[in-house]
UniProtKB/TrEMBL annotation:
Coiled-coil stretches: none
Domain NmrA-like, chain residue ranges per copy: 6-205
SUPFAM superfamilies: NAD(P)-binding Rossmann-fold domains
Annotated organism of origin: Phyllobacterium ifriqiyense
InterPro entries noted in UniProt: Ergot_Alk_Oxidoreductase (IPR051604), NAD(P)-bd_dom_sf (IPR036291), NmrA-like (IPR008030)
Name the UniProt record assigns to this protein: Uncharacterized protein YbjT (DUF2867 family)
Taxonomy, superkingdom: Bacteria
Pfam families tied to this protein: NmrA (PF05368)
Lineage of origin: Bacteria, Pseudomonadati, Pseudomonadota, Alphaproteobacteria, Hyphomicrobiales
Length: 265
């Protein structure tokens, strides 16, 4: 399912059927979903939401309307670690999504991945040019659940081919937990020079985020608090967790290579 017809040919050559739809149009989505055995939903992210998350509420209404009209056999929805957190934060948008889709009389699996390893793309320039990794995750030796996006794609593809009833939650993290120090060491190994962690002080976050153009930075700040304070994490007693296989250094190497290639172009 695409928005841009110019991108269709590469998928047709791979044997895909093509549908065009906008994520904000329930009628278009329902037409695209019609007749599908399974639907994978990767909802757009809003990193600077208005108070109360009206953008997420509108998107959830569109998705539920389309799914009820098309009634596919099953749905896999990309959610997130922290969708079950009790305190409000940026990831609460996915909490609302799970609540909306959870009310449908359709089989739905919510795939909850950890922090994307590819978020380290923001650190490539400073690690390469300054030997510094500026970390909002803290302290530097605290390990977090992270996963590579290619592992997310692979697990989602596996899930959508399975059959299940009711509602399921699958948690996904990488082969090992990752600290800011681990991330700096991965950059150092790939770049061939030392990289150290500099913690970004909590009191500076709001000013930094507003300088970047954010109007409502509190949800993002509370999300970071959740990771740092431990109330955004996978529960230790959860039995439906799986692990990806892609190591951190492989992801960092690809990010550095991609950055270098874009600069050459």
């Amino acid at each position: 399912m695409l928005r841009d017809p110019a991108k269709a040919e590469i998928w047709r050559k791979r044997g895909c059927d093509i549908a065009f739809a906008d994520m904000g149009d329930a009628t278009q989505l329902a037409a695209a979903f019609k007749g599908a055995t399974g639907v994978f939903i990767l909802p757009p992210s809003e990193f600077d939401p208005a108070p109360g998350y009206p953008e997420a509420a509108k998107q959830n209404e569109v998705l539920t309307t389309a799914l009820l009209a098309a009634r596919p056999e099953r749905v896999v929805c990309l959610s997130t670690i922290g969708a079950d957190a009790e305190m409000d934060n940026l990831l609460s948008q996915r909490t609302l999504l799970e609540e909306a889709l959870g009310e449908l009389d359709l089989p739905v699996t919510f795939l909850r991945p950890g922090w994307f390893m590819e978020n380290a793309d923001w650190d490539v320039a400073s690690a390469r040019d300054e030997g510094v990794l500026h970390s909002f995750l803290q302290p530097a030796d605290k390990s977090f659940a992270m996963v590579a996006t290619q592992d997310i794609g692979r697990v989602a593809a596996d899930l959508i081919r399975e059959q299940w009833i009711g509602k399921c939650v699958v948690e996904l993290e990488g082969p090992a937990r990752v600290s800011p120090n681990d991330l700096a060491n991965a950059f150092a190994s790939v770049l061939g020079h030392p990289v150290r962690v500099e913690i970004v002080p909590r009191e500076s976050w709001e000013g930094l985020f507003r300088a970047q153009g954010m109007r409502n930075p509190q949800p993002r700040m509370r999300m970071l608090d959740g990771f740092n304070e431990g109330w955004i994490d996978f529960k230790a007693d959860r039995g439906n967790r799986t692990r990806g296989t892609t190591p951190l250094e492989q992801v960092v190497e690809a990010l550095v290579r991609q950055a270098m290639a874009s600069e050459i172009v």
